[in-house]
Amino acid sequence: MKPLILTNLFPRKDNPNSGIFITKRLKEYQKLGVDFTAVSLAFRDKGRLLNLLRSLLHKPSEIPLEELEGVSFNPVFVERWLFDVAVQKLWTMKKALENFTDRFAEKISREFPKHNIIHAHGMYLPAPAGVVARKVSEIWNVPYVVTLHGSDVNLNMARRDMRNIYLETLENAARCIFVSRALLEKAKSFGYSGQNAVVIPNGYDPEIFKPIDKDTVRKELGIYKENTHYVGFVGNLIPIKRADKLPEIFGKISKELPNSRFIIVGDGTLRDKILKEMEGLDVVFAGRVPQVKVARYMNAMDVMVLPSRNEGWPCVVLEAQACGTCVIGSSNGGIPEAIGFDEYVVEEGESFEDRFAKRVVEVLKKGYNKNILIERAKSFNWEKTVKREIEVYYQAPWPM
């Protein structure tokens, strides 16, 4: 069995952690002796005007890395000109999708030898990996599998102009893997039958995410203060993560517990705004850091917050729990499934930020049993995830 892995989610020069859950599962493939080829679906922007536009919008070109943590990625580039972007933005996304996916499929089928199964990660616009996989599978006459990770269903499949393309791709796949039960149910709400669905959550790396004495790691990080509560956030500073509400949530916690220090690990479009709104709070901004250091910051936290407006399956929950750190999250998407404990889930709705901050304060005052969290996380390592994916490959029905 030699899978061709197609992904919209891959490590980039400006952000090596992008798609880290793809890199981690492929490392596990290597350990298990699976012979695979990983292909990054990337764009090469052409023309001075398009480069100027990207510069004005502060969007760097997404340059894929060809190797990370011993995993090789093979970028396949489709050139994108200003006209292509105009079609996408001003005419029709469907037209752009068909154009881009046809070009990717043609290049892949020409540049790589035939594999006996295709596994696509992501259905992200403007060139969903799943659609590309479907088109390559038609050329090679082999089955394809699609893994849905979150926003590809919650945002992209929700678009009426995209619905039929998504449904056609999912229904014709040998299997569709959803990272949470909530994500599967969301896809069903858009008309997906679910007949070829399986739920396989993402995992975590137990070699990186493991308990360290909190005071020790705080001193090593240079953030130690006596008699202080540490509350943190790990993720992209973007609206869907509800990062825009972090200043409000942290401010309310600080009013109840003035001896609180807040840690933010990550970066994004909201960085400057939220840091400005947090003036007066005791904030440690770590920015983007390698996973080894993410684990250290998670260990430094007493509580990690995840107030996201939507999630597929947030790996950061398991990673924090594996460090013995309690995670409090919203009731959206796959967050409750990932957390696993009702008392640490805050229902979406009116006065959410007030209720969320109050729950964090209650947990900080009461404490929690870290050993229960650590034991639960052990059920979700990458080895178990990947072995289930490989089972799916062998169960996939083959074309006649």
From TrEMBL:
Keywords: Transferase. It comes from the Bacteria. It holds the Pfam family Glyco_transf_4. GO terms for molecular function: glycosyltransferase activity. Residues 86-207 form the Glycosyltransferase subfamily 4-like N-terminal domain. InterPro entries: Glyco_trans_4-like_N, Glycosyltransferase_grp1. PANTHER family: SULFOQUINOVOSYL TRANSFERASE SQD2 (PTHR45947), TEICHURONIC ACID BIOSYNTHESIS GLYCOSYLTRANSFERASE TUAC-RELATED (PTHR45947:SF15). This is Glycosyl transferase, group 1 family protein. It comes from Thermosipho africanus (strain TCF52B).
